[in-house]
């Protein structure tokens, strides 16, 4: 008797209850942070285009810090190099959790989101390169349209008051996590210059100490906060972008609880840091990075000069094509079966939504273009591309929202009031 063929994995199926709860907690905080991010971006644009625009530039370029330690930075640099390190610390913890207990823990589970995310980075970069090659522009900004901003995307969902099912939200979050990893690699490899090997060696020694303390179970913020600041300062002075220190420390934190503990060190750290990262650090970065001119002439240059046009096309077209094609081809190759309650139109919706590339795209744009005028054009392009992607995703989400409402209500129904949704007490596949 021949063996039965292996069961086909369900793509975008019902998440395991523990994973769904963790993602719900994460996205709740990011949604609030995303709304604050939108407010900060609007304030920055209004301030930079008001009669008080000179005060915006004065505050943005005001310097403070410790010159003796090489840390006399402008306000804009403190928010980009300092506060965003906390954003990348949380990203490192998220990535570690995905690798250990999430969608990336096994090759079969990781194939679809990784293929989608990688294609969603490569296609925008290639489209940017093609655009600037045709227009005889600069290739410097090839990495700008690669990143997805999960907070901005969730803010769009919150404003629309939609009912996106947890599987689609988890897929978007996993795409953003892999995107963050790609951004970290790009920043570390392509935007590090003038390496100071002594400072870099000191940062590595600090990370080893950080790891040893974790392995020995040493607890107490008075150990880790000073050590983290030292590692960050040494990384900054080494010539490697300081945000890399944040993700390195995040990856070193355990995400599995120790025996007898209810939560891991990584989860506890994330719960403490994420609200500040999402609610303060990222909005402050947006406040001092998103203030660009929105005059008709400036907006006209976005769609006529090759570099900003490449960014817009990369975010709006490249992200959509890359993520959708990568997902479809990976599903065909792995013979994954799409959740019958959803359709490929829902994958397209997430692909369009992932074209919102605000925070990390602005950061890479500042690193890629040292000329202020070129940097301002690219920032305007990031804003324009993200808004176009948000508008396109909004149309698709509203079109499918009736389906999403039904699925979300089914996921959340708890008629026996035992704290466990009824859908998890039925005999149905979970997508595992």
Outline the secondary-structure elements.
Elements: E1 10-11, H1 17-48, H2 53-61, E2 63-66, E3 71-74, H3 75-100, H4 107-134, H5 150-160, H6 166-190, H7 197-215, H8 221-238, H9 243-252, H10 265-289, H11 296-302, H12 306-334, E4 337-338, H13 344-353, H14 359-368, H15 372-412
Parallel strand pairs: 1-4
Antiparallel strand pairs: 2-3
Helix pairs in contact: 1-5, 1-6, 1-10, 3-6, 3-9, 3-10, 4-6, 4-12, 7-8, 7-9, 8-9, 11-15, 12-13, 12-15, 13-15, 14-15
Care to describe what's here?
- The chain has 432 residues and is an all-alpha fold.
- It has a single domain, classed as Na+/H+ antiporter like fold.
- Helix content is 69%, strand content 3%.
- The strands form 2 sheets. It has a two-stranded parallel ribbon with strand order 1-4. It has a two-stranded antiparallel ribbon with strand order 2-3.
- Mean pLDDT is 85; it is low at 1-5 and 428-432.
Order of helices and strands: EHHEEHHHHHHHHHHEHHH
Q: Which regions contain 5 or more consecutive residues with pLDDT less than 50?
A: 1-5, 428-432
Query: What shape does the CA trace take?
Result: globular
How are the strands ordered across the major sheet? 1-4
User: What value does the average pLDDT take?
Assistant: 85
Question: What do we call the CATH homologous superfamily?
Answer: Na+/H+ antiporter like domain
Main β sheet profile: 2 strands, parallel
- By CATH, the topology is Na+/H+ antiporter like fold
CATH architecture: Up-down Bundle
Structural class: mainly alpha
- How much helix, percentage-wise, in residues? 55-70%
Task: For the record, give the distance between the C-alpha atoms at the N and C termini, rounded to a whole number.
Answer: 27 Å
Radius of gyration: 22 Å
Number of domains: 1
CATH level-1 class: Mainly Alpha
The total of beta strands comes to 4
């Amino acid at each position: 008797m021949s063996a039965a063929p292996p069961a086909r994995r369900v793509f975008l199926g019902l998440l395991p209850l523990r994973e769904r709860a963790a993602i719900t907690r994460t996205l709740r905080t990011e949604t609030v942070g995303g709304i604050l991010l939108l407010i900060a971006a609007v304030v920055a644009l209004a301030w930079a285009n008001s009669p008080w625009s000179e005060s915006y530039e004065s505050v943005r370029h005001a310097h403070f810090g410790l010159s003796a330690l090489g840390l006399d930075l402008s306000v804009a640099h403190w928010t980009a190099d300092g506060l965003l390190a906390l954003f990348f610390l949380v990203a490192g913890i998220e990535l570690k959790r995905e690798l250990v207990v999430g969608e990336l823990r096994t090759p079969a589970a990781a194939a679809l989101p990784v293929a989608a995310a990688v294609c969603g980075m490569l296609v925008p970069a290639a489209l940017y390169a093609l655009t600037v090659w045709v227009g005889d522009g600069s290739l410097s900004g090839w990495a700008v349209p690669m990143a997805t901003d999960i907070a901005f995307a969730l803010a769009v969902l919150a404003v629309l008051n939609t009912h996106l099912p947890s599987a689609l939200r988890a897929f978007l979050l996993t795409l953003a996590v892999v995107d963050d990893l790609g951004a970290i690699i790009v920043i570390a490899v392509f935007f590090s210059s003038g390496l100071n090997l002594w400072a870099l060696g000191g940062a590595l020694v600090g990370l080893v100490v950080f790891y040893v303390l974790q392995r020995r179970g040493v607890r107490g913020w008075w150990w880790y906060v000073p050590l983290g600041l030292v590692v960050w300062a040494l990384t900054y002075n080494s010539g490697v972008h300081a945000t890399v220190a944040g993700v390195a420390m995040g990856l070193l934190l355990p995400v599995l609880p120790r025996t007898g503990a209810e939560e891991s060190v990584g989860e506890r750290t994330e719960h403490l840091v994420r609200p500040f990262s999402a609610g303060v650090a990222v909005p402050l970065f947006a406040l001092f990075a998103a203030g660009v001119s929105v005059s008709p002439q400036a907006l006209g240059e976005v769609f006529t000069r090759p570099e900003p046009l490449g960014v817009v096309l990369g975010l709006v077209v490249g992200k959509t094509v890359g993520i959708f094609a990568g997902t479809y081809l990976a599903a065909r190759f792995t013979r994954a079966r799409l959740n019958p309650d959803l359709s490929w139109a829902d994958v397209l919706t997430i692909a369009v939504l992932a074209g919102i590339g605000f925070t990390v795209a602005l950061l890479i744009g500042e690193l890629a273009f040292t000329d202020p005028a070129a940097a301002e054009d690219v920032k305007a392009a990031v804003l324009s591309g993200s808004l176009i992607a948000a508008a396109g995703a909004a149309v698709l989400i509203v079109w499918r929202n009736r389906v999403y409402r039904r699925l979300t209500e089914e996921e959340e129904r708890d008629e026996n009031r035992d704290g466990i949704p009824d859908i998890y007490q039925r005999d149905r596949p979970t997508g595992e």
